[in-house]
Amino acid sequence: MNDFSAQLATELQPASGTGPDWLNALRQAAAEQFRSHGLPTRKDEAWKYTGLGVLTQNEIRLSVPADTIIAPAASPAVARPVVAVEQQVTLLNGRILNRSENLPSGVALLALDEALDTEVDGLQALLESLPSAKKKTLSSTGFSALNTATLENGVVIRVASGVDGGRVLLSWSTSVEKAACLFNSRVCLILEPGAKLELLEQFETPRDNKNTSNIVVQAALGEGAALRHVRLQQESETTGLITRTEVSQQAGSDYRYYGFDFGGGLVRHDLHCMLLGSAAKASLNGAYLLDGNRHVDNHARVDHMAPDGFSEQYFRGVAGGSGKAVFNTAVYVHPGADGTEAKQSNANILLSKRAEIDTKPELEIYADEVVASHGATVGQLDEQAVFYLRSRGLNQEQARQILTTAFCRSVSDRLADPQLAEAISERMMDVMPQLD
Fold this sequence. Notes:
Elements: H1 3-11, H2 21-37, H3 53-57, E1 61-62, E2 87-92, E3 95-99, E4 107-111, H4 112-118, H5 123-128, H6 131-134, H7 142-149, E5 154-159, E6 164-173, E7 181-191, E8 196-203, E9 212-221, E10 226-233, E11 240-249, E12 254-261, E13 266-275, E14 281-290, E15 295-304, E16 310-319, E17 324-333, E18 341-350, E19 356-365, E20 371-379, H8 383-390, H9 396-412, H10 418-431
């Protein structure tokens, strides 16, 4: 364990005793794991290209409960929602600041501590299903262990069978503290058979700071349930974001993820879908734009455990300045998952000689009658296309911006809501890296 992990381990407080016995046992097991293995390092294969030096430089300390409580008189600045929504939850430092009350019938939205007190059906099984919470694994899951060891803040959303829960916006931000903090929070989604929900996450802090958020999202999709998950991240270059998304899918369920990284200093997303039932579908899409010294790492894994499943990974990236992107996607077709169809596609554009993109698609098949494809490219803009646009009266910068934006809009255009797609595309144009 390195010095930074050891420091966080000393700051990790013993389980407070609040909550049911199983929860305290969960926290204690995760704390023991973290104290044994700490945070990931470059020696962990999954973190080979992503170091945590910036957290050390920012002198990050582990937040304590007092850090997550904001006095109403403080009136912290909150970013404007990317689109208008009826159901919004504002979270500051990982804790609910305020929330909408006009929920559709059949939708329950609770703070995590409230949900634990009311014993929401299925919540215990969901929390205990996180691998790092019950296994003493290596440091590669250190952030998840730390999240579970401090499990207190978060959101629980449960949608009843056959109910359309509409769109819920989780607006994340952090406050400016005397010292940079690492905030932990958990999002639990339980969709009963045939239920629908669109979860829109917006990570945007109006005031620059050096905080890091460590967010774990767990979703359990019942038979025929559908979850649309959109994540927009536009933090400052000094802010960190670590997320882990675990989705378990029963027969005929449909999970669609759209991630847009337009900011952040150190950003890491781990996406994992388990297709447990037949004919389940998982579509993972993302666009990342980075310049300066930004670092964005997307790791995606899909496990096909049942027949006739479908999965797709479609990611596009543009890197300028000294920006660095990492993309690793893995698909495992397990024995018995016959009739699976899996697609992987990752294309990238480099706008600077100092920029770097590391991409690695992986595919393992242990079943029959499988249709699979994968591809990854890293290149530069087509100069003929640039010349064509310039011949139509555009200058070189305008031509390149149009081409790079069109390249990434292929992701936002996949969104079902044209208004949301256009709002994200406009932001995309505002932050598009320039040729260096």
